[in-house]
């Protein structure tokens, strides 16, 4: 018969330390009026040749607060696109309605029809500390 040796029980404590791989969870409101979104590739604050159009004319924000938006930097959303407001004309088309402005743009993963935009000037986003 083999004798068992008694050993003092030992516990191992692991401490959580946040690092650059832990991202904050952000809630962002899709809050743009009727218009279209674009990437201003030449930096002149207007849509023209060489820019990347992200939506069709005459779309608008869904007005929904989106939780857990992926790709947001740890210090929060930053302007990564522009929004050109538009209005419907008497002749049955859209025309620009004021200057384009900076927005934070993201996609929810369901393709081109699920693109969202939030005004940077009226920043409607917040961290969601209770999310995991």
Helix/strand class:
mainly beta
Number of distinct helices: 0
- The helicity comes to under 10%
* Secondary-structure element series: EEEEEEEEE
Measure the end-to-end span.
51 Å
Radius of gyration over C-alpha positions, nearest whole angstrom: 24 Å
Uncertain residue segments: none
Envelope shape: rod-shaped
Largest sheet: 6 strands, antiparallel
Topology overview:
Blueprint: E1 26-29, E2 35-39, E3 52-53, E4 65-67, E5 81-88, E6 94-96, E7 101-107, E8 115-119, E9 125-127
Antiparallel strand pairs: 1-4, 1-9, 2-3, 2-5, 5-6, 5-7, 7-8
Defining traits:
single chain; 132 residues; mainly beta; 6-stranded antiparallel beta sheet; 3-stranded antiparallel beta sheet; 9 strands; rod-shaped
Written account of the structure:
By secondary structure, this protein is an all-beta fold. The chain is 0% helix and 30% strand.
Quick gist of this model?
By secondary structure, this protein is mainly beta. The chain has strands spanning 26-29, 35-39, 52-53, 65-67, 81-88, 94-96, 101-107, 115-119, 125-127.
């Amino acid at each position: 018969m083999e004798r068992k040796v008694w050993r003092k029980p030992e516990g191992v404590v692991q401490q959580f330390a946040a690092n650059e791989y832990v991202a904050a969870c952000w809630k962002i409101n899709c809050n743009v009026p009727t218009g279209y979104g674009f990437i201003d590739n030449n930096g002149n604050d207007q849509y023209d040749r060489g820019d990347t159009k992200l939506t069709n004319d005459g779309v608008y924000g869904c007005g929904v607060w989106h939780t857990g938006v992926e790709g947001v930097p740890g210090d929060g959303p930053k302007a990564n696109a522009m929004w050109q407001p538009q209005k419907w004309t008497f002749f049955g088309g859209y025309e620009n309605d004021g200057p384009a402005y900076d927005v934070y743009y993201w996609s929810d993963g369901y393709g081109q029809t699920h693109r969202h935009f939030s005004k940077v000037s009226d920043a409607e986003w917040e961290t969601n500390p209770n999310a995991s």
